[in-house]
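Throughout our pipeline, every protein is held as a single compact record rather than as scattered files. Nothing more is needed to write down the fold, since each code stands for a local backbone conformation. For reference, a complete record is included directly beneath this paragraph.
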Amino acid sequence: QVQLVESGGGLVQPGGSLRLSCTASTSIFSAYVVAWYRQAPGKQRELVASITRRGVSNYAAFVKGRFTISGDNANNTVYLQMNSLRPEDTAVYYCNTDNVYWGQGTQVTVSS
């Protein structure tokens, strides 16, 4: 059983930045892939970005060029750096490993 804890969410103005963290109870890259998803009210959960244990990253088109996913093995943590935030980025952001384990989510609200 892997426990994932997300942090770093909050309220930010449009154009601002946040960095989300996902910390695992075990070596985060015991998983093959770690991903960030988000779910806005009334919408389905959608993939935002993912990174493999070899460091290969992928991004949804709607965040490409604005968000960066990275891993820190020493701290069992995967980060999601979010820049140029837009109101439509407002959602609960979830961490996932290997499509099996989920964190509890962290709320991101982009509003003036």
